[in-house]
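Lecture notes, unit on protein representations.

Consider one protein chain, 214 amino acids long.
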Amino acid sequence: MKSTIENTVEFVKEKLEGAEAGHDWFHIERVWKLAKKIGETENCDQDVVELSALLHDIADPKFHNGDETIAPRISREFLESQNVPNETIEKVLFVIENISFKNRGNAPVNPSLELQIVQDADRIDAIGAIGIARTFNFGGFKNNPMHDPAVQPSLNMSKEEYKKSNGTTINHFYEKLLLLKDLMNTEKGKKMAEERHDYMLNFLDQFYKEWNVD
């Protein structure tokens, strides 16, 4: 008999077939692996960590007109169909509803350990070489300019401003990616973020050299 985790993997693969490449099954798989790696260093509920990581982007609001209610609803319906205990379901939904970078201004006062772990995993996949590739992929998906020296990054955006932002891809590094290292929750997450953060700084140095034909 297949496990709940195996069934969840199949469900997510099917739901995300044809998704934008930065938010597809392979993104989920990486976050799942990262979450398990971080979870090994913490006294956490591993089932909640894995289920949350697998379901966290089942219906990313940016691809559903900003609707943040779809993912929790789909996740609840699926987990109930798997006879997952209600206590576990509530813990998974708590992670899904609070993981997003754009919601950091309304972050829960007492985030669960499982939320901290999966949030770190999701943020780690947004930085480094993979983060750079995902950022340019999404910028191309939205037909945003790569770079415009006349357009400055919009720092301290509200949640609504962030959701509607169509700035340049390079500005997104300053608006989000370079901020993530200092937002890590776990010790393992902090260590993993350091190398990827430095890689992005080196990339930006090289990008500006080539842009300016130095």
